[in-house]
Write a structure and sequence with these properties.
- Two copies of one chain form a homodimer.
- By secondary structure, chain A is an alpha+beta fold.
- Chain A has one domain: Maf protein (Alpha-Beta Complex).
- The first copy, chain A, has five helices and eight strands, in the order βαβαββαββββαα.
- In chain A, strands 1, 2, 3, 4, 5, 6, 7 and 8 form an eight-stranded mixed β-sheet that branches.
- In chain A, a hairpin with a 5-residue loop joins strand 5 and strand 6.
- In chain A, helix 1 crosses helix 5 and helix 4 crosses helix 5.
- The radius of gyration of chain A is 17 Å and the shape is globular.
Chain lengths: ~200, ~200
């Protein structure tokens, strides 16, 4: 069976491939279909964006497609940047620009009030019209400066107390084990295995 | 296996039960759980409302739950009443009041421009967090007066050209065969059978 990842973000593709390793499926990505039109991620919720991306790719390729969207919900910012996490500092913001803006907005917020939650929604859209979603979350804290060089996005400022490390200080294996996307993908992996009767 | 229908509308319950007949599942409804709090159907889309209803019941009962939402999209009214179909004439509108308002709004719209589409989204929410949706649509026309006494909602003014009858002039069997909800439920039936490895 062939499955398309409706993301062009190589960092995400790596994590998703890792989470689906060993299933009897051939994984291709948006990048294998250069003519696909871009998808505007303007949904009001993570679920809407995840579905929107997967639907567009499923329709264009005729293959089951996986879309995902992720948000960082910061308590001191009333849940922001949330669904706007990718473009917090503007429509073409880099990871570093988003992180800088987040740290600036959190200036003066005391240690006990820096709680945050990563949330990830993964959607599978099938050509016959069934659309399925799973979610994963990971609780942590926003540091006052970056720590670690690995991973991507807000990972260098997202500290996981139970591990004593930021996502950026973890290997991909360790991050996948506890992260929002890792947890959502573990659920999606189980769903795909059951749905398509795979090992 | 036990499955809860997250609707208290007996007309819908009858149609859904009919569509799931013969599967090895025990179907219960919201009415079997008198303490469930009501769900406010304020989603921006049919999918949101269907999920919202199913989530609330799944959480409260610990059982897989099916929610649905239906809209009538009238071309001459730019897709209205759509997600507001249930409460077109007000929050506690009866079927008859909604139909009357629709006919009034359509006064003067000529025969060739009375096209409409019923759309139904059915969502299955499982305790482990997987949420799946299917959709069904049915194309038709809005008559200038009611025809037939059966069924419910906008059925007496929704004419299906291929059958030469309104939904209200059809038996439940005939309506289920071609209707938005019937088509969505046929897809959901297949999904449930595969998902839970039933007959």
């Amino acid at each position: 069976m062939k499955l398309v990842l409706a993301t062009a973000n190589e960092d995400k593709v790596r994590e998703i491939r890792h989470a689906l390793e060993g299933l009897a499926i051939e994984i291709v990505t948006r990048n294998d279909f250069p003519d696909l039109p871009p998808v505007v991620e303007d949904g009001a919720t993570l679920a809407e964006n995840a579905l929107k991306k997967a639907r567009a790719v499923c329709r264009a390729t005729g293959l089951p497609a996986i879309g995902d969207d992720t948000g960082l919900e910061v308590e001191a910012l009333d849940g922001e940047p949330g669904v706007h996490s990718n473009r917090f500092a503007g429509p073409r913001a880099t990871y570093a620009e988003n992180v800088r803006l987040l740290l600036r907005r959190m200036e003066g917020v005391s240690a006990g009030r820096r709680g945050a939650r990563f949330r990830c929604v993964v959607a599978l859209v099938e050509p016959a019209g069934v659309e399925s979603m799973v979610e994963g979350t990971c609780e942590g804290e926003v540091l006052t400066a970056t720590r670690g060089e690995g991973r991507f996005g807000y990972d260098p400022v997202f500290y996981v107390p139970s591990r004593g490390r930021t996502f950026a200080e973890m290997s991909m294996e360790e991050k996948n084990e506890i992260s929002h996307r890792g947890r959502a993908m573990a659920r999606m992996r189980r769903f795909i295995a059951e749905r398509f009767l795979l090992g």
